[in-house]
Fold this sequence. Notes:
single chain; 6 helices; two-stranded antiparallel ribbon; Aminopeptidase
Amino acid sequence: MGRAKEIIVKVIPSKVANDFVKKNHYSGKVVQNSALHFGCFLDNNLHGVLSYGSPIDKSKVLSLVKPSLWNEMLELNRMAFNEYLPKFSESRCLAISIKLIKKNAPHIKWILSFADGTQCGDGTIYRASGFFLTAIRDNKDLIKLPNGFIFHELNSRDGGSIIQKKRNSDGYTNTTKWLNDKFKGWERLNGFQLRYIYLIDKTCKITVPILPFSKIDEMGAGMYKGKKITLQERRVTKSDAVDSNATPNLENQCATITPTSQNKNNKK
C-alpha cells in the first residue's frame, strides 16, 4: 500500500471541506446537506475530502435497510481527491472514515451513496470497499446547456434550485418549454445512476435485491472518468479494483456523486 498508509484522516470544518470540493470535485459543487466532513492529509497538506450528510429525501431511502431509524444512516454526498495522493488512497480513506463514524457515532448503521454513470464513473471505489450494488437506473434527468452547464431537472440539489428560480423568474412553469425558448441547442444526457449501500451494522438487512457487479456490463452502465468502458476492460474485481495499473487512483474525484451540476474536465 506504500505511502497511502501515511495518510491521516480527520474531521475538518465545513468551509475547508467545501472549498476543496469546489476546486477538486468534477461537478464543482457542494451538497448543502453535507454535515460531517473528513479531510485526508499527506505531508501536512489536505489532498482529499469525504462529506457525509442526510439524503435529500430520507423518507424515500430509509426503508432500504432494516431495522433503521431516522437518525441511523448517512449518505456519502461527496468524495474528492487530487492527484497528489498515491495509489490505494481512495479506498483507504473511505475505510478509515467509516471506522471513525462507527467509533464516534455508533448509532449509524449504514451508508448510502450514488455513482453517476452519466458524467463520471460507475462506482469502482464502492465495489472495492465492500459496498453492495442495489440499483442501476436510467438517468435522463441531466440537462446540458450550450455553455456546458449541467443541472438535474428534478432534483433541487446543487444547480437545480438555481435553475428553478431562473425558470420561474422568466415566467415559465414548464422546464422543457423554457429550455426550448431560452437555450437553443440544449440536450438531455443519457446514462445511468448506480446506488450502493454499506452496512456498518452487519445485523441489518438490505430489503431490496443485491445486484451482481456483472449487471453493470449487462446494462451497458460501465463508465470511468466520463467514458464508456466495461468492467472486464478494466479488469475490475474486488481485489484488483484496488490494485490495478489500469485504473490509477481509481475513481478519483468522481468516486461519489449526487447526480447534478456543472461538468468540469478534471478527474473524478
